[in-house]
Amino acid sequence: MAILSKDEAQTILKKVLSFSTADECTVYLNGRTNGNVRYARNNVSTSGTTDNVSLAVESRFGKRSGTATCNQFDDATLRRCVQRAEEIAKLAPEDPEYMPLLGPQQYLTPVSAVASTASISPDFRAQAAADSIALCQVRKLTAAGYLEDGSNFQAMRNSKGLEAYQQSTRLDFSVTVRTADGTGSGYAVADFTDSSKFNAKALTQIAADKAAGSVNAKAMEPGKYTVILEPAALVSDEGLLNRLMYALDAREADEGRSFLSKKGGGNKLGQKLFDERVTIYSDPLNPEAPGNIFDGDGLPVKRMNWIEKGVMKNLYYSRFWAQKSNAQATAFPSNFIMTGGTQSTQDLIKSTAKGILVTRLWYIRDVDPQTLLVTGLTRDGTFYIENGKIKHPVKNFRFNESPVIMLNNIEAIGKPVRLGGNLVPPLKIRDFTFTSLSDAV
After folding, report:
1. Do 166 and 300 touch, CB atoms closer than 8 A?
2. For FRET with 369, which of 53, 255, 360, 389 sits at 20 to 30 Å CA-CA?
3. φ, ψ for residue 143 (rounded to 5)?
4. Which of 296, 312, 295, 314 has the alpha carbon at shortest distance from 304?
5. Dist CA 204 CA 175 (whole Å)
6. Do 298 and 77 form a contact (C-beta atoms < 8 A)?
7. Long-range contacts: 72-77, Cβ < 8 Å, 24+?
8. Between the CA of residue 68 and those of 85, 164, 195, 371, 403, what are the distances in Å?
9. Residues 6 or more apart from 369 whose CB is under 8 A from it?
10. Given a cut of 80, is residue 1 above it in pLDDT?
11. Pairing of strands 185-192, 163-179
């Protein structure tokens, strides 16, 4: 019963609410089916499938709340789950930031679930792994990859009449390719709602080319360089753009804890903080990267411009902080879209006299939250560009950079591609700061 229809899910939720004696009650029901295959050293190491459905009951008495969970759905278990939530609520302290439950809401209807992805079989996963491994074996390279696919649904209902449901599918794939001596490494990553767009061979070819091309890397002096950051360098491993989006919180800004804090109090909403070519928005209805349509409170997620032509247009306001600030509450989105041009990464390379191509960043850690300064390392393919061509691989660097500074040093923006459920373009950035070398591949 891992994936329930809207009617099936709401039938269970209605029953659970009928057992409640609390002042307010919200019930959440989530289910998923996942399949995966993992391979390393050109051999499959693990594969399998999982499925689960879980229910959470939040009961409230006044400003006190308690939550209990279960994953069995007979009446006796559901009653015990509700009773346990109510017992916990009566023992809990009052919440100083209590907000009453929302009533009925209107939600968008994206195409977030595709039947072909929901029906992926073990044979499909095995063939993808075989294609990836075979390509590397022919070139005497070694592949390590992971493919995971799945379907899930989210449903909620509360005692105020709110009712929400969404189903979605997703396929995630990543592959690292190494040379036989381990001195060259390449990487490729992609994700899709519709599995028919997935091509394991094409992605592995990208990683294999980078691996073969990164042998005998030369050391370059640390310093400020023009860089071309591929999308994987911007969003994977909680990358630079992810950190920027997570930092758009009004409360943190108003309380003086973020780069959006204004001296003397308040925030920088409405100010131009980035290059005028920077526009970032979220949209659950985007056909290439559909997103969630409601948050944990049941607040609808709608299209929202966060940064428009370099200007901060909106911040994330929780319901509590919105009430306190006399502002409109905003549901935090599950995706973001950065607009761009038509140039590919190769086009950006051709237009570069001198620079460095960065495939991927990793081990990213915060240095200064109030400027969003972070540090991390390049990996899996870093190359020196001269006169519009890749001249040779270079040893990896440690970097210290802030996405705020980065988005003020833009030279060119490429064509957005999907990654991490978002749409992100490759970026050509001037004066990107590399602070030291790393011997790691």
Report:
1. no
2. 360
3. -110, 145
4. 314
5. 7
6. no
7. 73/1, 73/12, 75/15
8. 5, 20, 36, 39, 40
9. 247, 257, 258, 259
10. no
11. antiparallel
Q: Which amino acid is residue 36, in one-letter code?
A: N
Residue 133 CA to residue 145 CA, distance in Å, equals 9
Per DSSP (E only), the strands in 118-244 are 141-158, 163-179, 185-192, 223-229
Closest residue by Cα to residue 149 from 276, 31, 32, 310: 32
Which position has the token pair 């804890």? 257
> Cα separation of 376 and 84, whole Å?
45
Cβ atoms within 10 Å of 319's Cβ, excluding its own: 17
Q: In what order do the strands lie in the sheet with 422-424?
A: 311-312, 304-308, 280-282, 337-338, 422-424, 417-419
The two three-digit tokens of residue 163, written as one number: 């009712």
pTM: 0.96
pLDDT tens digits for 92-124?
Answer: 999 999 999 999 999 999 999 999 999 999 999
Cα(408)–Cα(385) distance, integer angstroms: 22
Token pair, residue 73, equals: 């759905």
Is 293 in a helix, a strand, or coil? coil
Q: Mind listing the pLDDT tens digit for each residue in 249-260? A: 999 999 999 999
